[in-house]
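Help needed: design a sequence for this.
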């Protein structure tokens, strides 16, 4: 039995008629960009997240970039974030001329360690950018208190946490701005690139709307240097078909995660921890083992996919190496050597989860 990391065919089969009809409609109306479907999807996401504004953009990376620009982050500014994330989080800070200031992570959740943030704040700090890694919300309340105390913006990287909740709010609704990715394998995935910025702040929403469309609100009138970054109508068709099922998809991810954890409990393979502060939507199911490389080989030999997210923390990347030379983030470094993400998607069956666990437990017996 071969088991992939993620299988997107199941959701396509279920929604095929609706998606194909939607694609045909878009082709017949020939309105591909800034059309009614993307607009309707923005309204649906705003309602789902319980926020005033949702603005579709071309990717999750662009969502972060435009959110940072809308929040007024620019050259010389420092933004505090985690070194244990996908490069896009830090790239977006660099795009606006800012400097990513890394703070080590919590060994249990892999999210930024809130106890270390205050010591990293300087008079150049303008924002905190937590990532809800693998689908578990970072501990936002203490960060919001620091933002209040030091007049900083709180910008959430929700690329992996669509549908998660924290403090009675949906992921993205807690901070000043929330940034989503609709990369195909994300919890809510399109059939190409896409992203969204959510906010309750009218001025930020207005800025993102102008920035995503060449700095223009009225056609051929340009008030600022903007970008070409829109969510297209084809993506909106797919995302609108999937959104009503998202809570069910996330429930199934949690069910699969809990089955994995039940099986791995008490073994030398450490299951992921839920900190109980928010709801985890398991974009990834990620275990820790000092024998990670060996387990990866055993799974691969058994036809079971697995992956290392992420093998190199950002302060060790060539691009940020010079800036962070000689600085250590021991937790991020150790976690990067031990993490292993196992197959995870809503349609994964209990039999498949058992098969993965049988192979893993046999390897460490
Ligand atoms: C996927 C991802 C992004 C970037 O999203 P894209 O849509 O691929 O540009 C940003 N941050 C994190 C944590 C991600 O996982």
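Sure. Designed sequence:
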């Amino acid at each position: 039995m071969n088991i992939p990391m993620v299988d997107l065919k199941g959701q396509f089969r279920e929604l095929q008629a609706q998606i194909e009809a939607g694609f045909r409609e878009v082709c017949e109306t020939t309105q591909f960009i800034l059309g009614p479907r993307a607009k309707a999807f923005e309204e649906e996401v705003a309602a789902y997240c319980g926020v005033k504004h949702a603005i579709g953009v071309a990717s999750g990376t662009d969502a972060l970039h435009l959110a940072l620009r809308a929040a007024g982050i620019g050259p010389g500014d420092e933004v505090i974030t985690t070194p244990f994330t996908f490069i896009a989080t830090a790239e977006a800070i660099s795009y606006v001329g800012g400097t990513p200031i890394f703070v080590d992570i919590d060994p249990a959740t892999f999210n930024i360690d809130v106890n270390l943030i205050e010591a990293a704040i300087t008079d150049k700090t303008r924002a905190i950018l937590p990532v809800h890694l693998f689908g578990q919300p970072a501990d936002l309340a203490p960060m919001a208190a620091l933002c209040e105390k030091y007049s900083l913006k709180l910008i959430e990287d929700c690329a992996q946490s669509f549908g998660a909740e924290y403090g009675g709010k949906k992921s993205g609704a807690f901070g000043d701005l929330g940034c989503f990715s609709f990369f195909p394998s994300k919890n809510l995935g399109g059939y190409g690139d896409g992203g969204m910025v959510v906010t309750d702040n009218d001025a930020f929403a207005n800025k993102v709307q102008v920035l995503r469309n060449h700095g223009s609100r009225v056609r051929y009138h340009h008030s600022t240097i903007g970008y070409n970054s829109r969510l297209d109508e084809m993506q909106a068709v797919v995302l609108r078909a999937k959104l009503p099922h998202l809570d069910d998809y996330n429930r199934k991810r949690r069910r699969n995660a809990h089955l994995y954890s039940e099986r791995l409990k008490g073994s030398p393979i450490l299951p992921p921890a839920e900190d109980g502060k928010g709801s985890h939507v398991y974009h990834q199911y990620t275990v820790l083992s000092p024998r990670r490389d060996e387990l990866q080989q055993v799974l691969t030999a058994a036809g079971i996919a697995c992956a290392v997210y992420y093998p190199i923390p950002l302060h060790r990347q060539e691009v940020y190496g010079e800036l962070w030379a000689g600085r250590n983030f021991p937790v991020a470094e150790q976690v990067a050597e031990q993490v292993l993400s196992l197959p995870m998607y809503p349609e994964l069956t209990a039999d498949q989860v058992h098969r993965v666990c049988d192979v893993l437990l046999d390897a460490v017996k």
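The mean pLDDT is 97.
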